Amino acid sequence: MEGPFKYIREGNGKVSRVIRMGTRKSQLARIQTDSVASRLKELYPDVRLEIVAMSTIGDKILDTALSKIGEKSLFTKELENALERNEVDIVVHSLKDLPTSLPTGFTIGAILQRENPHDAVVLHPKNAGLTLDSLPEKSVIGTSSLRRAAQLKKRFPQLEFENIRGNLNTRLKKLDEKDDYAAIILAAAGLKRMGWENRISQILGPEDCMYAVGQGALAVEVRAQDRDILEMVSVLHHPDTVLRCISERAFLKQLEGGCSVPVAVHTEVKGSMLYLTGAVYSLDGADCLKDSMQTCVEIDNKVSESAQECVHVAVTANNISSSALDAAEKLGMNLANVLLDKGAKDILTTARKLNDAR
Ligand code: DPM
After folding, report:
1. What's the 168 CA to ligand 1 centre distance in angstroms?
2. What is the whole-number distance in angstroms between the Cα of residue 188 and the centre of ligand 1?
3. So what's the pLDDT on residue 1?
4. What integer is the mean pLDDT of 20-42?
5. pLDDT at position 307 over 50
6. Looking at the predicted structure, is the pLDDT value of residue 20 above 70?
């Protein structure tokens, strides 16, 4: 019973391992961590779970656009430090906030079934009943996502777009209690988890706004060498979601995009086929490169033997067919290469420069 792990002796004399889950302090992060905790509790009734909440630098800097701080891992660094020091064993994140490469020693041990991955419009109460099409000209839409702004500027040129920051609670408050924004755009998944589904007035389909890589899926980050925990969380993997998200992450990685470039995707699994559409945009949406590809991801039950073999864009999924995972990763890389051949690099470099200069 030595070592980095904490054990407790139950009243009946039984000794059980305590698994500690690290979380940010925001309400969304707590809800997401609690939902994974309750899944684990159902699957492993004997395991004792403890939740350790910490605030990260990213939570404290509320005045800088996320697109400027997103790539610096400000939301994840402290939690990874705690993982490294064995202070926690598991950290739950929104997959879309996790970079396509993690620092050495960490891996994504589980990707849970995706919620609705689309973006949603939340209206100021005075605009109830309207849509992005019917809002008055020059209405101000709040979003600090370059991806959302690029696509929506092109699609709805009569509207104006302005940054809005802060966690979900802060944003809804800024929307409702001031007159600065006619509407804001948020991920449907986050709104649903917060219990604010009733505020969604419109879900944006792929013709209006494609979603971010990994959007709507929860990821469980663990120590790459912690075999026990890896095995324990691996049962949370949702195979279709894993395949979709691996193709999306491979696409982003091959483009050398971070979480703060105007890159958007759309994926589907139908039968044994995985479909990926991916696009890159200039900041105003005027330039856009977009293409689609598909691959077969038939499950052949060949699961990989060594953990080393089975890491795809930082995801460890030893219980999913390695040939399906390989195919999904290749799909993302191949689609990115098609767009790179058409000049995607220039579009992204320019977007990044302009954004840094703002
Ligand atoms: C990332 C982006 C945003 C978050 C950029 C993007 C939105 C930033 C903004 C990478 N992370 O989507 O183009 O609107 O200013 C974030 C949210 C969730 C995870 C909130 C949201 C919840 C949904 C999920 C912030 N990260 O996007 O409305 O689990 O996917």
Report:
1. 10
2. 10
3. 37
4. 96
5. no
6. yes
Once rounded to an integer, what is the mean pLDDT over residues 287-296?
A: 98
- What is the dihedral sign for C-alpha 336, 339, 341, 347? negative
CA of residue 211 relative to chain centroid, distance: 10
List active site positions.
97
Q: Provide the b/e sequence for 182-204 (b: ≥16 CB within 10 Å).
A: bbbbbbbbbbebbebeebbbbeb
Please count the other Cβ atoms lying within 10 Å of the Cβ belonging to residue 358.
9
DSSP state, residue 235: T
Q: Per-residue DSSP letters for 71-134?
A: GGTTTTHHHHHHHHTTS-SEEEEEGGGS-SSPPTTEEEEEEPPP---SEEEEE-GGGTT--TTT
Query: 224 alpha carbon to ligand 1 midpoint, in Å?
Result: 26
Residues in contact with ligand 1 (CB, 6 Å cut-off): 66, 70, 94, 96-97, 143-145, 147-148, 186-187, 189-190, 212, 215-216, 259
pLDDT digits (tens, 9 = 90+) for 50-70: 999 997 766 665 555 555 555
Per-residue pLDDT of 187-246, as tens digits, reads: 999 999 999 999 999 999 999 999 999 999 999 999 999 999 999 999 999 999 999 999
Mutate to test the pocket of ligand 1, among 96, 108, 203, 355 (most ligand atoms within 8 A of CB): 96
